[in-house]
Protein backbone atom coordinates (compact mmCIF):
# COMPACT_ATOMS: atom_id res chain seq x y z
CA UNK A 1 0.00 0.00 0.00
CA UNK A 2 1.12 3.55 -0.68
CA UNK A 3 -1.21 5.46 1.63
CA UNK A 4 0.04 8.96 2.49
CA UNK A 5 3.07 8.83 0.19
CA UNK A 6 2.64 11.92 -2.00
CA UNK A 7 6.30 12.85 -2.47
CA UNK A 8 8.33 11.24 -5.23
CA UNK A 9 11.71 10.70 -3.58
CA UNK A 10 13.54 10.58 -6.94
CA UNK A 11 16.09 8.14 -5.48
CA UNK A 12 17.64 10.80 -3.24
CA UNK A 13 17.88 11.77 0.40
CA UNK A 14 15.72 14.68 1.58
CA UNK A 15 18.45 17.34 1.61
CA UNK A 16 19.77 16.31 -1.81
CA UNK A 17 16.25 16.31 -3.29
CA UNK A 18 15.41 19.76 -1.89
CA UNK A 19 18.70 21.21 -3.14
CA UNK A 20 18.21 19.69 -6.58
CA UNK A 21 14.66 21.04 -6.89
CA UNK A 22 15.78 24.48 -5.72
CA UNK A 23 18.56 24.54 -8.33
CA UNK A 24 16.19 23.36 -11.07
CA UNK A 25 13.61 25.98 -10.08
CA UNK A 26 16.25 28.73 -10.24
CA UNK A 27 17.32 27.53 -13.67
CA UNK A 28 13.70 27.47 -14.83
CA UNK A 29 13.11 31.03 -13.61
CA UNK A 30 16.29 32.35 -15.21
CA UNK A 31 16.18 30.46 -18.54
CA UNK A 32 12.36 30.09 -18.85
CA UNK A 33 12.69 26.44 -20.01
CA UNK A 34 14.84 23.47 -19.08
CA UNK A 35 15.20 19.84 -20.19
CA UNK A 36 15.03 17.10 -17.58
CA UNK A 37 13.45 13.69 -16.96
CA UNK A 38 9.68 13.37 -16.74
CA UNK A 39 9.74 12.39 -13.06
CA UNK A 40 11.88 15.39 -12.12
CA UNK A 41 9.71 17.65 -14.28
CA UNK A 42 6.56 16.60 -12.42
CA UNK A 43 8.28 17.10 -9.06
CA UNK A 44 9.56 20.50 -10.20
CA UNK A 45 6.08 21.58 -11.26
CA UNK A 46 4.75 20.88 -7.76
CA UNK A 47 7.74 22.70 -6.27
CA UNK A 48 7.71 25.89 -8.36
CA UNK A 49 4.02 26.68 -8.95
CA UNK A 50 3.21 27.67 -5.33
CA UNK A 51 6.21 30.01 -5.38
CA UNK A 52 5.00 31.70 -8.57
CA UNK A 53 1.61 32.15 -6.92
CA UNK A 54 3.30 33.77 -3.92
CA UNK A 55 5.28 36.08 -6.21
CA UNK A 56 2.07 37.70 -7.48
CA UNK A 57 1.78 39.60 -4.20
CA UNK A 58 5.09 41.33 -3.54
CA UNK A 59 5.39 41.46 0.24
CA UNK A 60 8.41 40.99 2.46
CA UNK A 61 6.84 37.88 3.95
CA UNK A 62 6.31 36.25 0.53
CA UNK A 63 9.85 37.13 -0.54
CA UNK A 64 11.27 35.48 2.57
CA UNK A 65 9.19 32.34 2.07
CA UNK A 66 10.31 32.02 -1.57
CA UNK A 67 13.93 32.79 -0.69
CA UNK A 68 13.94 30.07 1.98
CA UNK A 69 13.11 27.52 -0.72
CA UNK A 70 15.09 28.91 -3.71
CA UNK A 71 18.18 30.21 -1.87
CA UNK A 72 19.38 32.42 -4.76
CA UNK A 73 18.81 36.15 -4.52
CA UNK A 74 18.99 36.76 -8.29
CA UNK A 75 16.33 34.13 -9.01
CA UNK A 76 14.00 35.55 -6.33
CA UNK A 77 14.45 39.06 -7.74
CA UNK A 78 13.68 37.93 -11.28
CA UNK A 79 10.70 35.90 -10.10
CA UNK A 80 9.09 38.85 -8.30
CA UNK A 81 10.03 41.44 -10.94
CA UNK A 82 9.61 39.79 -14.36
CA UNK A 83 7.76 36.52 -13.99
CA UNK A 84 5.10 37.83 -11.59
CA UNK A 85 4.30 40.72 -13.93
CA UNK A 86 3.83 38.33 -16.84
CA UNK A 87 1.60 35.82 -15.01
CA UNK A 88 -0.36 38.34 -12.96
CA UNK A 89 -3.76 37.58 -14.51
CA UNK A 90 -3.32 33.79 -14.81
CA UNK A 91 -5.12 31.83 -12.06
CA UNK A 92 -2.68 28.90 -12.09
CA UNK A 93 -0.93 26.48 -14.41
CA UNK A 94 2.24 28.52 -14.86
CA UNK A 95 4.38 25.68 -16.22
CA UNK A 96 4.01 23.27 -19.12
CA UNK A 97 5.63 19.84 -19.49
CA UNK A 98 6.34 18.68 -23.04
CA UNK A 99 7.62 15.12 -23.46
CA UNK A 100 10.64 14.84 -25.74
CA UNK A 101 11.25 11.10 -26.07
CA UNK A 102 13.98 8.95 -24.57
CA UNK A 103 17.56 9.85 -23.67
CA UNK A 104 20.23 8.10 -25.71
CA UNK A 105 22.44 6.94 -22.84
CA UNK A 106 20.00 5.25 -20.47
CA UNK A 107 16.65 5.44 -22.33
CA UNK A 108 15.11 7.69 -19.65
CA UNK A 109 11.90 9.57 -20.56
CA UNK A 110 12.88 13.19 -21.16
CA UNK A 111 10.71 16.30 -20.96
CA UNK A 112 10.97 20.04 -21.37
CA UNK A 113 9.55 22.21 -18.59
CA UNK A 114 8.75 25.79 -19.55
CA UNK A 115 6.95 28.81 -18.20
CA UNK A 116 3.70 29.10 -20.13
CA UNK A 117 3.63 32.86 -20.75
CA UNK A 118 7.16 32.98 -22.17
CA UNK A 119 6.51 30.70 -25.17
CA UNK A 120 5.76 32.95 -28.15
CA UNK A 121 4.83 30.04 -30.43
CA UNK A 122 1.86 28.90 -28.35
CA UNK A 123 0.78 32.44 -27.40
CA UNK A 124 0.84 33.72 -30.99
CA UNK A 125 -2.14 31.56 -31.99
CA UNK A 126 -4.22 32.91 -29.11
CA UNK A 127 -3.44 36.53 -29.95
CA UNK A 128 -4.75 36.16 -33.53
CA UNK A 129 -8.15 34.91 -32.38
CA UNK A 130 -11.03 37.13 -33.47
CA UNK A 131 -13.16 38.69 -30.79
CA UNK A 132 -16.16 39.63 -32.95
CA UNK A 133 -19.17 37.36 -33.35
CA UNK A 134 -21.50 37.03 -36.27
CA UNK A 135 -25.22 36.86 -35.68
CA UNK A 136 -27.42 34.46 -37.61
CA UNK A 137 -30.18 36.93 -38.34
CA UNK A 138 -28.16 39.70 -39.94
CA UNK A 139 -25.55 37.56 -41.65
CA UNK A 140 -27.36 36.92 -44.94
CA UNK A 141 -28.60 40.45 -45.59
CA UNK A 142 -25.23 42.16 -45.17
CA UNK A 143 -23.43 40.54 -48.16
CA UNK A 144 -26.38 41.38 -50.43
CA UNK A 145 -26.23 44.99 -49.31
CA UNK A 146 -22.47 45.06 -49.91
CA UNK A 147 -22.81 43.70 -53.46
CA UNK A 148 -25.59 46.16 -54.23
CA UNK A 149 -23.49 49.09 -53.06
CA UNK A 150 -20.50 47.85 -55.11
CA UNK A 151 -22.68 47.56 -58.21
CA UNK A 152 -24.03 51.07 -57.75
CA UNK A 153 -20.49 52.43 -57.30
CA UNK A 154 -19.37 50.80 -60.56
CA UNK A 155 -22.35 52.29 -62.45
CA UNK A 156 -21.53 55.78 -61.21
CA UNK A 157 -17.98 55.55 -62.51
Automatic annotation (TrEMBL):
<feature type="region of interest" description="Disordered">
    <location>
        <begin position="126"/>
        <end position="157"/>
    </location>
</feature>
<protein>
    <recommendedName>
        <fullName>Large ribosomal subunit protein bL17</fullName>
    </recommendedName>
</protein>
<dbReference type="GO" id="GO:0022625">
    <property type="term" value="C:cytosolic large ribosomal subunit"/>
</dbReference>
<dbReference type="InterPro" id="IPR000456">
    <property type="entry name" value="Ribosomal_bL17"/>
</dbReference>
<dbReference type="InterPro" id="IPR047859">
    <property type="entry name" value="Ribosomal_bL17_CS"/>
</dbReference>
<dbReference type="InterPro" id="IPR036373">
    <property type="entry name" value="Ribosomal_bL17_sf"/>
</dbReference>
<keyword id="KW-0689">Ribosomal protein</keyword>
<comment type="similarity">
    <text>Belongs to the bacterial ribosomal protein bL17 family.</text>
</comment>
<comment type="subunit">
    <text>Part of the 50S ribosomal subunit. Contacts protein L32.</text>
</comment>
<dbReference type="Pfam" id="PF01196">
    <property type="entry name" value="Ribosomal_L17"/>
</dbReference>
<keyword id="KW-0687">Ribonucleoprotein</keyword>
<dbReference type="GO" id="GO:0006412">
    <property type="term" value="P:translation"/>
</dbReference>
<dbReference type="GO" id="GO:0003735">
    <property type="term" value="F:structural constituent of ribosome"/>
</dbReference>
Amino acid sequence: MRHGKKVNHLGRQTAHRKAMLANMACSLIQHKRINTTVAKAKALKQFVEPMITKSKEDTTHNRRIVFSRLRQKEAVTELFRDVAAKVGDRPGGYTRIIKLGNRLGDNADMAMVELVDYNEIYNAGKAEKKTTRRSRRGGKTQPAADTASKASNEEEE
